[in-house]
Specification:
One of its GO terms (molecular function) is tRNA nucleotidyltransferase activity. Its EC number is 2.7.7.56. It comes from Alkalicaulis satelles. Homohexameric ring arranged as a trimer of dimers. With about 240 residues, the protein is α+β, with helices and mostly antiparallel strands. The chain has one domain: GHMP Kinase, N-terminal domain (Ribosomal Protein S5, domain 2, 2-Layer Sandwich). It is built from 5 helices and 9 strands, in the order ββββααβαββαββα. α1 (about 85-100) packs across α3. It is globular and about 55 Å long.
Length: about 240
């Protein structure tokens, strides 16, 4: 039995609140069970110096966890002078994932900065951030098109991410914290709605994962991403 009584192939309750941040060109508050992440997209008409004059734009991301997003207060990374290795790894993952689904030439010589701030953490913060960040990015690109800044929507693929793991020999989808900390295998999948693979991160704790186990996790992830993409589409349809 899972901590919250879910079936092994079930996602936690998911909710997207579009336009949560009124000043950002695109924003979404994603709630995946008790993991809540605020994702905003800000349009900057200046590209990074190394991209100037190349006729294409850029998408980059920053990730942060609020001090009381977890059971104990964590120190703000700004006070230590630099982000932790974990934070750098996650924000690079978010940026890579989003750049895989956008035509940077169609975006033009501008960049979109994605900020993912974890308000409350109960496992799966990076996957929730990617899923919400795609909605923020899509909203910002639609805003650019509606404002006449660009002619076509540069986002060419729908994207979401989900975790899966093996606990007691059972493959489970969308691990919450109590499951994640005891998992024998923990994996994160970034996939497109069309079935494309953007990135897979998988780690075995006590013994190597078998091909059959990996296939079971992959099958769960495909099902989970499909459901998340359906929820994303519904959220976009209701976008104000």
């Amino acid at each position: 039995m899972r901590p919250d009584g879910r079936q092994s192939d079930a996602l936690r309750p998911v909710r997207f609140e579009m336009g949560f941040s009124p000043y950002a060109e695109g924003s979404c508050l994603v709630k995946l069970g008790d993991t809540h992440v605020l994702c905003t997209a800000s349009v900057d008409e200046a590209t990074p110096p190394w991209l100037r004059g190349q006729g294409r734009g850029w998408v980059t991301a920053e990730y942060a966890m609020l001090p009381r997003a977890t059971h104990q207060r964590t120190r703000r990374e700004v006070t230590s002078g630099k982000p932790s290795g974990r934070t750098q790894e996650i924000q690079r993952l978010i940026g890579r994932s989003l750049r895989a689904c956008i035509d940077l030439k169609a975006l033009g010589e501008r960049q979109i900065l994605i900020d993912c701030d974890v308000l409350q953490a109960d496992g799966g913060t990076r996957t929730a951030a990617i899923t919400g960040a795609w909605l923020a990015l899509k909203s910002a690109c639609l805003w650019l098109k509606e404002e006449g800044v660009i002619k076509t929507d540069p986002v060419h693929a729908q994207l979401a991410a989900v975790s899966a793991g093996i606990i007691g020999g059972e493959a489970r989808l969308d691990l919450e914290y109590e499951e994640d900390r005891v998992a024998e295998t923990d994996a994160n999948f970034v996939l497109t709605a069309g079935g494309g693979v953007v990135e897979v991160q998988a780690t075995a704790e006590d013994k190597p994962i078998s091909q059959g186990e990996f296939d079971a996790l992959f099958a769960l992830a495909r099902r989970g991403v499909s459901a998340l993409c359906d929820a994303q589409s519904a959220a976009l349809a209701g976008r104000s």
